[in-house]
Design goal:
The protein is mainly beta and about 55 residues long. It is about 10% helix and about 30% strand. It has a single domain (about 5-55), classed as N-terminal domain of TfIIb, CATH 2.20.25.10.
Length: about 55
């Protein structure tokens, strides 16, 4: 089960409160402003700033 479009509409980056986009391979959510990448494991987004990396 992938992340639904409805869930993507309400999720925001915990760091800067900007929109998130799902990576094409479904492995993470990328912030459009600060470029943090939040991992998705077992179809559950890990929305912790400490677990996020920077996607360039």
């Amino acid at each position: 089960m992938a992340i639904s479009a409805e869930l993507l509409e309400i999720l925001v980056c915990p760091a800067c409160k900007s929109k998130l986009e799902l990576k094409p391979d479904g492995s993470g959510l990328r912030c459009v402003e600060c470029h943090r990448l939040y991992p998705v494991r077992d179809d559950i987004p890990r929305m912790l700033i400490d677990e996020a990396g920077i996607d360039e």
